[in-house]
């Protein structure tokens, strides 16, 4: 057997032949294995510049406002009554009886007057100027290598 190494190669392992009890030679052959190593590297290709502006625009709105007035009317009656009348409601008007005791030969109730309270609602339109805000966003892609805006491509 030839144990010489061809030129331009390096022997990996040279083992002299071994002999066993039956006078046979055993030759050991080294086994090679390749391994793969994969690595990733982060590369900046471009940047994005986002600008947001807030605008206020006055908006005119109509707002219905309700105000309430009260009318008071005094009605003289000067009538004698047997029992005090109760407070009563006639439509939007509430009537409150007002009495006094009058000294006569007999004591009797005299209805002197009624106070009539009427509620009225008045609706008016009032114009108000209300500022409304609106945001606008502008996006610009910047090429990482040149620092200049990138040519228009697909939008973000």
UniProtKB/TrEMBL annotation:
Superkingdom assignment: Bacteria
InterPro entries per UniProt: DUF2382, Stress_Response_Assoc
Annotated spans, Disordered: 1-21, 123-156
Signal peptide extent: none
Stretches assigned to the DUF2382 domain: 29-139
Biased composition (Basic and acidic residues): 132-143
One Pfam family of this chain: DUF2382
Record field: compositional bias (Polar residues): 1-11
Name of this chain's protein: YsnF/AvaK domain-containing protein
Species in which this protein is naturally found: Spirosoma profusum
Organism taxonomic ancestry: Bacteria, Pseudomonadati, Bacteroidota, Cytophagia, Cytophagales
């Amino acid at each position: 057997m030839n144990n010489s190494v061809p030129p331009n190669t390096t022997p990996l392992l040279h083992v002299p032949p071994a002999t066993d009890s039956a006078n046979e030679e055993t030759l050991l052959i080294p086994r090679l294995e390749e391994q793969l190593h994969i690595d990733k590297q982060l590369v900046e290709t471009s940047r994005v510049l986002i600008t947001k502006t807030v605008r206020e625009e006055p908006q005119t709105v109509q707002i219905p406002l309700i105000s309430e007035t009260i009318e008071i009317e005094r009605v003289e009656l000067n009538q004698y009554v047997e029992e005090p009348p109760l407070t009563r409601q006639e439509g939007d008007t509430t009537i409150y009886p007002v009495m006094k005791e009058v000294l006569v030969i007999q004591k009797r109730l005299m209805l002197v007057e009624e106070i009539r309270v009427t509620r009225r609602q008045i609706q008016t339109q009032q114009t108000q100027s209300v500022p409304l805000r609106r945001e606008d966003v502008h996006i610009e892609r910047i090429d990482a290598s040149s620092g200049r805006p990138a040519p228009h491509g697909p939008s973000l």
